[in-house]
Amino acid sequence: MDNQTKTTCLHAEHIALGARMSPFAGFDMPIQYSGIVDEHNAVRQDAGMFDVSHMGEIFVSGPDAAAYVNHVFTNDIRPMKAGDILYGMLLYPDGGVVDDLLVYREFVPDHYLLVVNAANIDKDDAWLREQAAGYDVVIDNRSDAWGQIAVQGPAAEKALTEVLGLPEAAPLTFYTFCESHWGDDRLIISRTGYTGEDGFELYASPASIVQMWRRLLDAGVKPCGLGCRDTLRFEAGLPLYGDELTAEISPVMAGLGMFCKLDKDFIGRDAIAAQKADGVARKLVGICLQDNAIPRAGYPVELEDGTQVGVVTTGYHSISLDKSLCFALVEAKYAALGTALWVRVRKRSFPGEVVKKRFYQTNYKK
Amino acid sequence: MSKVVDGLLYSESHEWVKVDGNIAIVGVSDFAQSELGDITYVDMPDEGDEFAAGEEFGALESVKASGELNAPVSGKIVACNAEVEDSPELINEDPYFNWIVKIEMSDSSELEKLLNAAAYAQKCI
């Protein structure tokens, strides 16, 4: 770990638990504790918790906050009520993705919270400031002052209500949040996650986050690392910025065009409108292989004759589905469901077919 | 601390070799399986394939990573362990019992280049 690597407020907890640590997005993060398969299954069947304190929290407020957020954000925040959460992207004018994020409409008027990817905090902060000219807003990057735990799985609600004593979590539906307290500290309870299961994300000060983590741990909630965070989000068909969304991979290419609302203005709107109207050269697809060989990021996607038509962006032997699956960016004419495609794994090419990207039936609380 | 078994020979790339006449029985060390994590797939060579010492003959895939398997000695693959091909997790459970391939050695003097248990243990710290 070099001097540039940051740590989260839970770093000492991870070390004490004997986690396997690795740098991720500039932070020294836990990859696994008991093992990826064990942790993955805990989230699918019971409950697991993740340190996601590396994520960024950028607060936007001011008289023009709503107009400004709707100007930079692809989704439409106008119908949002206080306590609502919306997924969408920040785009460059050419439709490339600056970041994907969650927007929280806070209970105080003209206050929004933007939760962004750890790797993009500084880039987003700079981008948001550049776009703020002419808007009466305050942009406050508070990422270092907030910690975050994701509690995910069918037993997550019970963990919050019974272990942490937060009964206010129970009535929340998916993609809503409430304001609460942990001691005297502000606590945001959000029914969101990145696993395909029901679950919550808790935002509070570092000291409160450490207390909640220890209490959940003592109650038997399994600590889960970034290893299974990736296998879980992958099975649920969720993109990862850097793999499935980048400055070169637009939301339309990634199959996320529904999060870009063309009936309003936003940076990148014209490019997205053109892509929706004219189609895109490459599309993100799911591929299921017949064999158990594992497609990894960067492996070529081919036709039967060996012509390369795409590349794998994320791939695993799915833990919950026991199949070899991947996301791949392929030429658009090969993106239809059922299309036969091959993935080259080392020296051999393995046959598969295009399937829906949501490999796993998600279990959200609607 | 990963386990090293006396009486076996080891390669720098973490394969072990048990010598049985002119046959080298090959698996991976406890260190290797622990580094990889939950192994989900063994990419096996075909019986009859020939490899030079140090050449990649297959791969182990875990959930997160893929690790190549290198031939510790030159020779011909005479057997692949179908049990670990069907149940790759056996390698995590007991890497020294669950061998991967058997190689008919073409030059048994190559064994001298492999490490004994004490020397290999130094590599795994």
Question: Roughly how many Å apart are the termini of chain A?
Answer: 42 Å
Radius of gyration of chain A: 21 Å
- Rg of chain B: 13 Å
User: Can you list the strand order of the major beta sheet of chain B?
Assistant: 1-2-3-9-8-5
The name CATH uses for the topology of chain B is OB fold (Dihydrolipoamide Acetyltransferase, E2P)
Shape of chain B: globular
**Portion in strands of chain A:** 25-35%
Say which CATH homologous superfamily of chain B is assigned.
RNA polymerase II/Efflux pump adaptor protein, barrel-sandwich hybrid domain
> What is the domain tally of chain B?
1
- Secondary-structure content class of chain A: alpha+beta
Summed up, the domain count of chain A is: 3
User: Number of helical runs of chain B?
Assistant: 4
The stretches of 5 or more residues of chain B where confidence is low (pLDDT under 50) are none
Largest interface: chains, residues each: A-B, 18 and 11 residues
Which CATH class of chain B is shown?
A: Mainly Beta
What CATH calls the topology of the largest domain in chain A is: Gyrase A, domain 2
What does the overall shape of chain A look like? globular
With strands numbered from the N-terminus, the spatial order across the biggest sheet of chain A is 10-11-12-9-3-13
- Look at the structure and give the CATH class of the largest domain in chain A: Alpha Beta
Q: What is the chains' assembly state?
A: heterodimer
The parts of chain A where pLDDT drops under 50 for at least 5 residues are none
